[in-house]
Amino acid sequence: METLLLNADEKSLDLASSLLHDGKLVAFPTETVYGLGADAMNRDAVLSIFSAKGRPADNPLIVHIYDRSQLKELCTIPEQAVSLMDAFWPGPLTLLFEKLPAVPDEVTAGLPTVAVRMPSHPVAAALLRSCRLPVAAPSANSSGRPSPTKASHVLEDMQGKIPLILDGGSCDVGLESTVLDILHGTPTILRPGGVTKEMLEQVLHTEVAVAGSVLRPLRPDETALSPGMRYKHYAPKASVVLVEGKEPSVLSALRELYRKEAAAGKKTCVLCFTEHLNQLQDCSPHDIGSAAHMEEIAGRLFDMLRTLDLEGMECVFSEVVPPEGVGLAVMNRLGRAAAFRTIHADD
């Protein structure tokens, strides 16, 4: 199959809309990451997403809409959802709803809930308005790989597997949407993203919990209620290990870990804050952004993880960030990229 990579314009959007109506797949930019879209009401089209990505069928998908009126065919709407939609839609917030029978089980991994969001990216919004379909769309990458924040990332993973990639430039947020469960007692973040716990609490005027699986592996007996809850996810080919602790201990540990693996002949680097580049200059430092600007780190994380593959890295040791605000989302992605392998430098 030939994969077209086209700038998003009126002509390519018309082609994308036609392909979606024909049950085909289209990759398109959102404000979070690039999505791999199919008509959410077409079972065969949805199944082709799993095939193209190599994605396990028990991993639910998110449905993207352009107007709240589309919810009528997808789900029931609890009262609590209205204030959240008013505050954060369109934007990087996904809500869980009780699904209606019309939604294929393939979209929801057999769960009674469906995850829905309204993207704010102008290309995503234009595509959804053009096709007038609810579009199921996980990230447009091979399953387990770092999510794509550029069209070139999608092409790396999806060339020859899908007919069209719409190029809308780099994604602004750089991490997938926040997924919030408001159906089962205390509102609970299942996957953190650009809409933070603090932002949600301001709107809901109540405490918002964070699922325990956000910063640990999903247990064998736990069901993945949201995408991105698997044990290892977002991972480069290299072995990734996180290093936490007080700053002097972390920097010392990073130097020692780098020296050990490099001496063994492995291509090794460290991921560090901008502020520590000079102190780690002999450790092949890769700048993940300033510790004072968490949104910067979030925006460049997936691109950095893909760069490690292009450089042929085998061992990667990374600084960590406080799991607060957007930092919670960063640590969720870094933790899964490392399969939660962590060294405590202070020990």
Shape: globular
Helical residues, percent:
25-40%
Percentage of residues in DSSP E strands: 15-25%
Largest sheet: 12 strands, mixed
Q: Give the tally of β-strands.
A: 17
The pLDDT mean sits at 95
Helix tally equals 10
Q: What is the gyration radius calculated from CA atoms?
A: 20 Å
Low-confidence stretches: none
Give me the strand/helix succession.
EHEEHEEHEHEHEHEEEHEEHEEHEHE
Distance linking N and C termini: 53 Å
The helix-and-strand class reads: alpha/beta
Could you please describe the fold and organization of this structure?
With 347 residues, the chain is α/β, with parallel strands linked by helices. 31% of the residues lie in helices and 20% in strands. The chain contains ten helices and 17 strands. It has helices at residues 10-21, 43-53, 79-88, 105-108, 122-131, 151-158, 197-204, 247-263, 294-310, 326-337, and strands at 4-7, 26-29, 34-39, 62-64, 75-76, 93-99, 113-117, 135-136, 164-167, 178-181, 188-191, 209-210, 239-244, 268-272, 285-287, 315-319, 342-344. Strands 1, 2, 3, 4, 5, 6, 7, 8, 9, 10, 11 and 12 form a twelve-stranded mixed beta sheet that branches. The protein has a five-stranded parallel beta sheet with strand order 15-14-16-13-17, sandwiched between helices. Helix 1 crosses helix 5. The longest helix is centred in the C-terminal third of the chain and has 17 residues, at 247-263. The protein is globular. The termini are far apart.
Characteristics of this structure?
single chain, 347 residues, alpha/beta, five-stranded parallel beta sheet, 17 strands
